[in-house]
Design goal:
Layout lengths: L2 E6 L7 H14 L5 E6 L5 H12 L5 H25 L4 E4 L6 E3 L8 E4 L2 H8 L3 E5 L2 E3 L5 E3 L5 H12 L3 E6 L20 E3 H9 L7 H10 L3 E5 L7 E4 L13 E5 L3 E9 L4 H11 L7 E6 L4 E8 L4 H15 L3 E5 L2 E7 L9 H11 L6 E5 L2 E7 L3 H12 L7
Parallel strand pairs: 1-2, 1-9, 2-6, 3-6, 9-11, 10-12
Antiparallel strand pairs: 4-5, 7-8, 11-12, 13-18, 14-16, 14-17, 15-16, 18-20, 19-20
Helix pairs in contact: 1-3, 2-3, 5-7, 6-7, 8-9, 10-11
Bound molecules: adenosine-5'-diphosphate, aspartic acid and magnesium ion.
The site of aspartic acid (ASP) has 13 residues, from α5.
Amino acid sequence: MATLVKKFGGSSVATPEKMHGIVDRILREKKPDDRIVLVVSAMGDSTDDLLALAAKVNPEMPKREMDMLLATGEQVSIALLASAFEAKGHPAISFTGAQAGIRTNDKHTKAAIQDVLSHRVDEALNEGKIVIVAGFQGVTDEGAITTLGRGGSDTTAVAVAAGLKADLCEIYTDVDGVYSADPRIVSNAQKMQEITFGEMLELARLGAGVMQPRAVEYGEHNNVAIHVRSTFNDVPGTIIRGEYTVQEKNFVIRGVAHDTNVAKIAVRGVPDHPGVAFTIFSALAEANIDVDMIVQSARVEDNKNDILFTVTKTELVDATAVIEDLKESMNFDKFEVEINVAKVSVVGAGMLGSPGIAAAMFGALAKANINIAVISTSEISISCLIPEKDVTNAVNAIHDYYFPNGKEE
Ligand code: ADP
Ligand code: ASP
Ligand code: MG
């Protein structure tokens, strides 16, 4: 008897026909005593549509109400999919995140799962039902509905799998695995057979949208291997797990990621004394805003500093408000916002022992005549902030350099 958790993303449940396709496949592949949980996203682009609707009503919609609104998207898909199973004669039941026991903190619009109380799902499985859980949503201890950030259904799936100690967690999507770059913009990107949690987390964090970073983290902490594969064919996908099992471990660069959901804020003329960086970044942290790249440069002419950092475009309005509020007390000259930027990154645990990776990346960008505004590094990645218009060229130039003939896997 196996417990299987299968997550289907928005494009996989975009139409009634696609939903029936999923039902047919599940019923065809299911062994009689398999216990099956499906975690589903909102249909097609409906989360984007809800966001657009919110912006028309109130561009600064309270985050609690935003969660109330966005959570409806997933509720539509679970009810329809459960009914599609019933239509084919198989018992099924849908659960919202709250009903499925997904407990989160109260950080509305990007809440983190703290615990999964699986008993209700477990009972329904024991009754022989296929259980359909709404991805992307949870509930606080006070009963408020929360959402988990864009792409959060991935995290729901991994958390449900961990809670049920499932045998398998599969992420079904519109690509047949994790590639060395986004296959939508790099035509010769290569599919990976497997990738470690650490490298996948870094790729995801740096923009590889195929997995939500928190899902990978959750998988790593709870030792849930994740199989990323296609909704539309049976080809084996990519396994995300703790260690490589079949491949050589000598990859230097595992993949190239890019992210256009980036904005740069430059705070100019900050008086140079201890505590200024603390003041800016603690105020941003207080507002629950993630800051990514940070550069401080000293100005010799007037003993002031420029402090530059990046946030997501999604959080730019909130970040700008925080900086605006600090202007008077900090007495800096001005701040500037730039939204036409993007970040390209190379990721690979192998770069630790390989000098010259950064130089090669900068060389590939120079050859493509692309200017770098900010550079940042971690142990297993290097990132460059570039003009947004150059992002496709940049990813291809870097990918061509590291994967010149397309690497067989
Ligand atoms: P879903 O709706 O199923 O969650 P997403 O759109 O969130 O699907 O994720 C799948 C998409 O992720 C792919 O269509 C692809 O364009 C994008 N993607 C970005 N980077 C990668 C990568 N390295 N490998 C595979 N897909 C990637
Ligand atoms: N529907 C949500 C989104 O579009 C969650 C998800 O699809 O994972 O981000
Ligand atoms: Mg997704």
